[in-house]
């Protein structure tokens, strides 16, 4: 059998619930029940979510966690490798989302048709000694191709972009959507949630608090000095010594590198990233459903600074970003750090934009 027809036959069988797996057993089994005989009830209400890069280090745990989310009714898993296995595995979880797998570029458009939310962790990760920008040459092209298909198949979907370098891939996505005439700045969000998750964890450690009670806004971008934790705005209100500020800022800015080095060539953060991506996607879905007052940090096309893209707090709503919230009062230390971050961010944005315009 051709690899693709194998994949296709698996994929038609691995759509669960609405189209339950073919239960027909081999000659040694007693059952002759096929999917035609299963008493499917029809779909549960909820959102349709696609994960692009679903078979990867982030993609697999992210897909598993999205299958648990009760707001998801349909989950499409797309990758260029291994989706039949991942989809079959996840489809056996007894939660209501219907899971379907899509393999290779000729199934990309089907994977995206009618989606409400598209999460993108596709692309190569760092190895020790690399910067996120070193991933640009490979990941820029991957993000471009995926976004061209999104523009065609689900132009109104909310897009959560994880692939690095986020500071440049989000401008790439925006340019692709602009070219296609589908760009809506409210619907394109670069995922910087892992910076917030790390900041909450590290601040809680220093302050002796439960991380669930801590909220640290992290603004700017998602690479090195562009990651700006606003420790002056931590909730609950906390004061830090200059030494604590230095330690926390450095640890939050270099959290990704800490994991890359610990993994010693086996990739970058995957499990904490899947957790962060699910936290962010869940916030987007709750807002789409109409839940009020959902505020998260994300890297977006914004008016908060003179830069075209900047991570800051946004209020989410039924159409994606409902409001770009101001930065609020900054300490002298944060103001100085912001100026340094802006220079690097401007270069990364320009690199992304010119990749499409050139
Ligand atoms: N925004 C953030 O905070 C974070 C971003 N990342 C980034 O996420 C990306 C993925 O990281 P991992 O999952 O660890 O990498 P991985 O290599 O384990 O998985 C990437 C997956 O993307 C797939 N892929 C490659 N080309 C594709 C294409 N054209 N279409 C669809 N899928 C494709 C691969 O087959 C693979 O399954 C990296 O760029 C990494 O730097 C990682 C951690 C945090
Ligand atoms: O550091 C990396 O390459 C992956 C990443 O973005 C993070 O963990 O924050």
Characterise this structure.
The protein is of the alpha/beta class and about 350 residues long. It folds into 2 domains: about 40-190, NAD(P)-binding Rossmann-like Domain (Rossmann fold); about 190-355, Lactate dehydrogenase/glycoside hydrolase, family 4, C-terminal (L-2-Hydroxyisocaproate Dehydrogenase, Chain A, domain 2). The chain has helices spanning about 5-15, 60-70, 85-90, 110, 135-155, 165-180, 195-205, 240-255, 255-265, 270-290, 330-355, and strands at about 45-50, 70-80, 100-105, 115-120, 160, 190, 220, 225-230, 295-300, 310-315, 320-325. A 6-stranded parallel β-sheet has the order 3-2-1-4-5-6, with helices on both faces. Helix 2 runs parallel beside helix 10 (about 270-290) and helix 7 packs antiparallel against helix 8 (about 240-255). The longest helix is centred in the C-terminal third of the chain and has 26 residues, at about 330-355. The radius of gyration is 21 Å and the shape is globular. 1,4-dihydronicotinamide adenine dinucleotide binds near residues 55, 81, 162, 191 and 267. Oxaloacetate ion binds near residues 126, 132, 164, 259 and 260.
CATH topology of the largest domain: L-2-Hydroxyisocaproate Dehydrogenase, Chain A, domain 2
Instruction: Write down the domain tally.
Output: 2
Count of DSSP H/I helices:
11
Within the largest sheet, what's the order of strands? 3-2-1-4-5-6
The rounded Rg comes to 21 Å
Task: Give the termini separation.
Answer: 42 Å
Low-confidence stretches: 1-31
Q: How many β strands by DSSP? A: 11
The dominant shape is: globular
**% residues in beta strands:** 15-25%
Mean pLDDT across every amino acid position: 91
